[in-house]
Amino acid sequence: MTADAMIDFQKMTAKTIPAEDMLAPGHRACQGCGEVLALRLLMKAVGPETIAVSATGCMEVVSSTFPQSSWRVPWVHVAFENAAAVASGVEAGYKAMRRKGRIPDKRTAILAIAGDGGTADIGLQALSGALERGHDFVYICLDNEAYMNTGIQRSSSTPYGAMTTTSPPGKVHPLGQITWKKNMPAIAVAHNVPYVATASPAYHLDMMNKIRKAVAMPGAAYLHVYAPCPTGWRMRPELSVESARLVVQTQVFPLYEVVNGRYILSRKVNKPKPLKEYLQQQGRFRHLDDKTVAEIEARLHAEYDKIARLAEADAPAEEKEAKK
Amino acid sequence: MTGRTGIEVSLALSEAVKMANADVIAAYPITPQTHIVEHLSELVADGELDAEFVPVESEHSAMSACLGSSAAGARTFTATSSQGLALMHEILYIAPAMRLPIVLAVANRALSAPISIWNDHSDIMGERDTGWIQLFAENGQEVFDLTLQAFRIAEDPRVMLPVAVNLDGFTLSHVIEPVIFPEQKLVDQFLPVYRPQIRLDPAKPLSMGMFGIPEIYTETKRASEMALMDSKAVIVKVWDEFEALFGRKYSPIETYKTEDADTILVSMGSVSETAMTAIDEMRADGKKVGLVRIRMWRPFPDEEFKAAVAGARVIGVTDRSITPGSHAGPVFMEIRSLLYALPERPAVFGFSLGLGGRDVTRDNYKYIYDQCQVLEDTGQDRYEMVGVME
Fold this sequence. Notes:
heterodimer, A: 324 residues, alpha/beta, B: 390 residues, Rossmann fold, 19% strand
């Protein structure tokens, strides 16, 4: 049974992508921003019956410079580390007002949107609390792998070996980032929420259907979206979508879903492209030697294999039987 | 529950939140606030209060969830103390600027270090400049009444600001006092269902909490400050209305035996009852002394305060917190600054006492009275922490 069959949601095809944008053009994002591309497509997929809560960060800054707003759905920003807590309050308020008959009895999608710093670092506690309490909302982490809004500082989501302004490769410490990327989806899964998924804007239909599934599932859902940042990654802006594709094809960022604890690979990558193809587009990895690249590649393949094994182990008996 | 009842003050406060029919309570436990949120949890669990109780993982998230809930259009309450209030600090500033009418009860407690669970006012004084309406209760009845009033004041379309109701931790929050509970229908008349003019609603999309460039930041802060200053007139009107319905009178400043007083002591919170007893005893000794109690700390009622102390020769201001490095407490600084511009001003002296749960006694007030005379007679200007064991 696929994830599509397990969740009652309105599946989108290339022909049924809504023309209407909930995130209007005219925002102030950088040229080639993969984050705003992902956000625009996600907002298209969820549609107008939505309330969006943004953490402080690039997407908040580029979309809400008073008196101009890019948001065509009700939107609120409070601070950096608390998007999940603010969304908890919005959800609780809606629940109470609906029960007391003060607002129409219909489902409104409630989204909390934050970057990787706002999720994996400073916002982790608020996120954990909201996931554990099981509010009916979707948390979206738009992961561009560093604090881009403040000028490209490292986060716990910055990949091993990446150069940032606070993980600079130097004469004594030549590697750049010396820690491995925090596994946020696994942390979300550990909260036993009904739906966790990873997505990339290069696989836009997959991503848009995942947000629809996340919204359709009652309870808390977590969506981790890979968001290329040409400015912060020292990459040509026109390569954003290509890097978002290569990251999947090289097994660096596996696309998968975890539905009620069951792992499902969205895209099997049996013959990964060489990691170098992905890294060489980005100036942040330029300092890495072949030996380090090989080490990183081995580790990332092992991580991918773990997910693939989980998906295999979780596959229903009939699927396993069919393979034999 | 109606009529006069003996009840722990924390529970009375929770009953006020119930009678206010709050929609969302997001709270994290901290001593001495705990009895408030425990009782609210029970009321929700028993169906006596139809609300969402959000047991958040920190006070930072408590206040954040309150902003979300209030922005959604729900009547919203939380309570905290001390370190919890300090953890909310960042978010406290945002609520008034976004004009979200949250009600917060603060069971006042000292701040670390050293860690202390006992009462003083250092927690709320750290939040003095956040832009909240800040009220101080003296007794159980006042805690109940101010809590009900706080929702009405906060949600008034002319106000739309969050309100903090302060009650002294333990010395007020944990004592059993007689409280008169009103009829629910009278409460409903005073405090109708909250119908916000704007809220997060997909039918009418709007953006809240937007990015403020230098061209508009100053104006936004000014608008916020004006709203706080203008709230005083509305609060007074709400209090008049409250008196008409419930028979109890409230005002920004309370006075006790000040009419002919040459010396006036100034206090906030529950110690004022001790101060009044001390004043009675000093009056019996022929001293012309009175008490002014500040109920409305923010916005500060300048005119009412000036009128209350008019004619006094000396004013002794008591602070329940300190302002390190400035040789003064925050209430003292407020009052001396306010009175400085008067053509004929009284001498104003500052005393901090009752820190971290140290008892505040009648003798403290008598000592402060005596010190005021000594300082004035000798022309000295000295701030003092009262009762320090050297």
